[in-house]
Design a protein that fits this description.
Number of helices: 7
Strand order of the largest sheet: 2-1-3-6-4-5
Number of strands: 6
Strand content: 5-15%
Shape: elongated
CATH superfamily of the largest domain: Ribosomal protein L4/L1
Helix content: 25-40%
Structural class: alpha/beta
Distance between the termini: 16 Å
Largest sheet: 6 strands, mixed
Order of helices and strands: EEHHHEHEHEHEH
CATH class of the largest domain: Alpha Beta
Length: 214
């Protein structure tokens, strides 16, 4: 697939870039995309929830009512789950929600996500750029020049750029990521991918090094 490279003014240049068909042109596998996104979201969960069970609640162990004849449910001491302030039955405990997804499956998921964006014409390639200083106004102007101001965007840079990151930090619909850190969730969570010219080579090298199923 061949795409035209745009400059930061939104004008088409004479340059073109060829996207590797083994990365951007495969048949998308929606199931592995779902698996990878599910794992990403599961890993974001802290899993620190905790409630006290009967044995962990502070209180007297004296039996407060007789076993039978009261007309109510049987209960022992004030730590009973039946009483206000008692322990909780089968309450949540700290746990890790993460689960394993095979490396080849994750690679296939990322390729499928990129191919899905390419299939939907949702990839824009721009010349390498940077800002002299953090400027939200400059980032807004860039999105307007690319006619993507009303879209949720993911900018893919070849390496970390503090000024670009700070320029986009206050924009709710704009996210910044480096090419080597690209993941399925971030790709699927945007309307359009804006990839810088140098990032294309980084993505190609990254996936060629990863190998995996096409």
């Amino acid at each position: 697939m061949e795409l035209t490279i745009y400059n930061i003014n939104g004008e088409a240049t004479d340059k073109k870039v060829t996207l590797d068909d083994s990365i951007f042109g495969i048949e998308p596998n929606e199931h592995v995309i779902w698996l990878d996104v599910k794992q990403y979201l599961a890993n974001q969960r802290q899993g620190t929830h905790k409630t006290k069970e009967r044995g962990e609640v502070t209180g007297s162990s004296r039996k407060i009512i007789r076993q039978k004849g009261s007309g109510g449910a049987r209960r022992g001491n004030i730590k009973s789950p039946l009483l206000v302030g008692g322990g909780r039955t089968f309450g949540p405990k700290p746990r890790d929600y993460g689960f394993k997804v095979n490396k080849k499956t994750k690679v296939l998921a990322r390729k499928s996500a990129l191919s899905l964006k390419a299939k939907n014409n949702a990839i824009v390639v721009v010349e390498d750029f940077e800002f002299d200083a953090p400027s939200t106004k400059s980032m807004v102007k860039l999105t307007e020049n690319l006619q993507l101001a009303d879209k949720k965007l993911l900018f893919v840079l070849p390496n970390q750029n503090k000024n670009v990151y700070l320029s986009a930090r206050n924009l709710r619909e704009v996210n910044i990521i480096t090419a080597s850190d690209i993941n399925t969730y971030k790709i699927m969570d945007c309307n359009n991918l804006v990839i810088t010219e140098s990032s294309v080579a980084v993505i190609n090298n990254f996936f060629n090094a990863q190998g995996g199923t096409k």
